Amino acid sequence: MKIVRRDLVRDGPGSVKMVPVDSDDLWFAYNLIAPGDSVMAVTVRKVLREAASGGRDAERVKLKLEIKVEAVDYDKVGTVLRIRGKNVLENEHVKIGAFHTLEIELQRPFVLRKGVWDSLALDVLHQASDPGASADLAVVLMQEGLAHILLVGRSMTTTRARIETSIPRKHGPAIAGYDSALNKFFENVLQAFLKHIDFSVVRCAVIASPGFTKDQFHRHLLLEAERRQLRPIIENKSRIILVHTSSGYKHSLREVLDAPNVMNMIKDTKAAQEVRALKDFFDMLSNDPDRACYGPKHVEVAHERLAIQTLLITDDLFRNADVETRKKYVNLVESVKGSGGTAHIFSSMHISGEQLAQLTGIAAVLRFPLPDLEDIEM
Amino acid sequence: MPRKVFDGVDYDDGYDDDYDYDDLDDADYYGKAQPSEPVKETIKRGTWSCPICTYDNDESMTACDICGVFRNPLPHMNNNHDKKTATAKTSDSSSAKTQWSKTNNVEDNNHVKDGVLRLQANNKASASSSISKESIPSMESSSKLSTGNEQLGDQVSGASSRRNRMGEGTPSVEEIRPQSHNRGMSKSDLPSKSRAPYKPEKWMLPEKEGSDLNQLNLAIVGHVDSGKSTLSGRLLHLLGRISQKQMHKYEKEAKIQGKGSFAYAWALDESPEERERGITMTVGVAYFDTKNYHVVVLDSPGHKDFIPNMISGATQADAAILVIDASIGSFEAGVDPTKGQTREHAQLIRSFGVDQLIVAINKMDVVEYSKERYDTIKQKLGAFLRLCGFKDLSVLWIPLSAMENQNLVSASSDARLRSWYQGPHLLDAIDSLQPPTRDISKPVVMPVCDVVKSQSTGQVSAIGKLASGALRSGSKVLVMPSGDVGTVRSLERDSRPCTVARAGDNVSVVLHGVEETNIMSGDVLCHPEFPVPTAKHVELKVLVLDGSAPIVIGSQLEFHVHHAKEAARVVKIISLLDPKTGKASKKTPRCLVAKQSAILEVVLNGSVCAEEYSNCKALGRVSLRSLGRTVAVGVITRLIED
């Protein structure tokens, strides 16, 4: 995300002009823009004009509109951010108070004006403008008959393709059937691999599976690359890593991110940190359950007693909440940080964020055991 | 209580109390016997003539006997889901379960239709025959509108059908209306349900005792490299199932590849991948005969990554052989709680209802047939098996050596072994196993283990073990969850064609009329009128095994039921169960840790064919895995409709 101009006061009003560069930036913008802010951008609007002959003419006019945000919608599939709101800027074509939907696109600047730039928003802004740490990791997670191709980005994980076939077992005479079915499956995965994995954007590609499927696929990949002279694969042979997981289902992605050789490459990225933090939470829950809690009520109680050492929270909670709850959570995060603890804000588009969201979205590792939390209703 | 030797963990006493899922098959579950079929339909009440075929039907029938046309057209005709509707059952009986062959709708029925008649009529009907399922707990039955199904008329008055695809919710109680009034109007609008009885046909029942050997499905499990495939290969060779020429071929090829010691294992591991790596990857099936049984050997993989395949094999098993490597170090590695598979395999086969176990202590030649080693192993493992729920009497311990052919099919010739061991050899032990009970009288249910499309003939065949009922060529079968109906073209067992396959038989069914894309491993073949429900949201009663990470709401696991597997997510932990009493002890706990039993709800990514454990055991046993370990095993208590 390119920040063109910053004009703000910490914990006060201000405006920022920025240009989103990749789809991750749209996610950051989604987290920044809240109802009540105002966004100014160049957009296209269909305008009815009186033509000379008296008839009305509908014309698409490019204009600069500033709207007061009422709703923000992130389209995961199309990677487009839509902001709906009322017009507040005087404009020859559009009345003040008229509704409009702005589409924030890549490479198009927009100005965001907020009433209060709290620490969280500033954090997001800071992360967005950080040029380094682009984790992009492409993962092919497979098992016999099922494959997922996932792209682990800085703040989100997207599923690019899912392939499922039925592969017969190896019974006596049907062995030939097994081979041909397996080859067809690998061929499909290869096609998806070529289509969705772009080595110029991605740091490395990981092929993960239980058993030996990954080795078989890797062999197939290299052979086919040689045979069909597929340049992207041949040049980037060294950037393909093999990792062992326990299954080919999507939730095994956390095992991929845990693997040592992959961890080395992505250790400074958000995704890896999130996975590690969640793993620590679960370890604590199994070893010493009184030092781990989840659910807003329990966490609040723990916070009152200044017991929180690590706070895990998803960005979902901030985004969907009204001003009051948002402020409450912001205060929570700030006070945890202030008292020497750490707060991890999980992106709900990563697998660890999804898992945390399932678990009510907020969890904490405590400094000392609080056994009476058990009795408090969740 | 024997001292636990190898680890300090205290197993609950009640571990196996809770684990006795097999207790569910006691008579008390199935409730009082239903009154036998009312006899009345032969009362001459007059006849009505069918408008289509002009046959004179008895007054008690709502549909024509010959052509299946209803006497009175139905007021509501729903067109959805033809094949999948079930007629509800009636439950005027107690709240206990009712068995298949008992009729429920007893009342004052005039309309009785016994199983045979209905089957006949149904055969004429289209694929959209209504299905009646009796196995739902009585007192409850959900009532959804029936489809305008002609067959309904036969079933019962006041029947309403239930959507099969939606899985089963908790059915509500219904009553039967007396059939005498309202013949035609019955179905759709009336809330009561009835269950048509299922009566097995004559050809299904086994012929006179003693004329045919019972079939026994034997699973061979154990830690990786304990010698399972070699043992199976040896047995097959010694019993003459593999010719000498074939054996020579294996030996030669194995030596060329540098795997001379695997020669016997190659009889089971047939694919190039398995031979190259020297491991078993999928369950190898082979057949041999002993004095009392036709034995089907299910040689399972021991490698940790292939446990899903081993689960597939274990669901078919009636008894199991747990192979242990006696050599120093290997046994210890095998029983290691985290890295060894011996424990996980033992727990899994126990959860599949296997209660007879033969522990084959293999590679005794390496430890010089020492009695001390045998005793140490027996003691350590015995304690563990007792905790799993195996009774001491049903576990047999056999020391042997597959490599040297000692104590396999005849008493050992080695002096060292003979000096202290006088027990049975392996074949005798297999013969001494109790024959398992078979459910012939229920409608056919066959979970599909594998689907093979033959290149030459282009025919699709489904391989699996019949959990209940019987099949023969020409029988109609319904493939769930796709809903395709096909006919059985031929049956093959042990590469030999056979005429009838009964519950417990492991056969290959060649199907006609089923598309290859509509059937895959994990599906279930069933009777067109008694379809198996599918579900995406189930309630389970599970026991959490030790060594697993805590289970919380939102935990993502892999769900295994018969041969199907799906990714699943825990949505609710309903309550903890007290291991001693089995009653709920704490509502909505925060998380589940090892050795706790609980009731929880999971939502699956895709729907699977499953049934409550009390209705059908083979379709009700589940195992939950995560991160390469089996986290919990249990049974389905309820299918939840969404």
The shape of chain A, in one word, is: flat
Number of E strands of chain B:
27
Total DSSP E strands of chain A: 16
Report low-confidence residues of chain B grouped into runs of 5 or more: 1-44, 75-194
Please give the count of helices of chain A: 12
* Spatial strand arrangement across the major sheet of chain A: 1-2-7-3-4-5-6
What is the H level of CATH, i.e. the homologous superfamily of the largest domain in chain A?
eRF1 domain 2
CATH superfamily (homologous) name of one domain in chain B: P-loop containing nucleotide triphosphate hydrolases
Q: What quaternary form is this?
A: heterodimer
Coarse structural class of chain A: alpha+beta
Structural Rg of chain B: 26 Å
Q: CATH topology of the largest domain in chain A, which one?
A: Nucleotidyltransferase, domain 5
Biggest β-sheet of chain B, characterized?
6 strands, mixed
Radius of gyration of chain A: 25 Å
Strand order of the largest sheet of chain B: 7-8-6-9-10-11
H-E string of chain A = EEHEEEEEHEEEHEHHEHHHEHEHHEHE
Cα distance, first to last residue of chain A? Answer: 40 Å
Q: Please report which band the strand proportion of chain A falls in: under 5%, 5-15%, 15-25%, 25-35%, 35-45% or over 45%.
A: 25-35%
CATH topology of one domain in chain B: Rossmann fold
Tell me what you see in this structure:
The complex is a heterodimer of chains A (378) and B (642). Chain A has helices at 23-32, 119-129, 175-196, 213-228, 231-235, 253-258, 260-266, 270-287, 296-304, 315-320, 323-338, 351-358; strands at 2-8, 14-19, 38-50, 56-75, 80-87, 99-104, 110-114, 137-143, 146-152, 157-164, 204-209, 240-244, 292-294, 308-314, 342-346, 362-366. Chain A is an alpha+beta fold and 378 residues long. Chain A has 3 domains: 2-129, SH3 type barrels (Roll); 138-266, eRF1 domain 2 (Nucleotidyltransferase, domain 5); 270-366, 60s Ribosomal Protein L30, Chain: A (2-Layer Sandwich), CATH 3.30.1330. In chain A, the strands form 3 sheets. In chain A, strands 1-2-7-3-4-5-6 form a 7-stranded antiparallel β-sheet, with helices on one face. Chain A has a 5-stranded mixed β-sheet with strand order 10-9-8-11-12, with helices on both faces. In chain A, strands 13-16-14-15 form a 4-stranded mixed β-sheet, sandwiched between helices. In chain A, β8 and β9 form a beta hairpin. The longest helix of chain A has 22 residues, at 175-196. The radius of gyration of chain A is 25 Å and the shape is flat. The model of chain A has no long low-confidence stretch (mean pLDDT 83). Chain B is α+β, with helices and mostly antiparallel strands and 642 residues long. Among the domains of chain B are: 214-432, 3-Layer(aba) Sandwich (Rossmann fold), CATH 3.40.50; 445-526, Translation factors (Elongation Factor Tu (Ef-tu), domain 3, Beta Barrel), CATH 2.40.30.10; 534-640, Beta Barrel (Elongation Factor Tu (Ef-tu), domain 3), CATH 2.40.30. Chain B contains 14 helices and 27 strands. The longest helix of chain B is centred in the middle third of the chain and has 18 residues, at 371-388. In chain B, 54% of the residues are buried. In chain B, the strands form 6 sheets. In chain B, strands 7-8-6-9-10-11 form a 6-stranded mixed β-sheet, with helices on both faces. Chain B is globular and about 85 Å long. The model of chain B is unreliable at 1-44 and 75-194 (pLDDT under 50). At the A-B interface, α3, α8 and α12 of A face α8 and β12 of B. Chain B: It is found in: Cytoplasm. Chain B: Pfam families: GTP-eEF1A_C, GTP_EFTU, GTP_EFTU_D2.
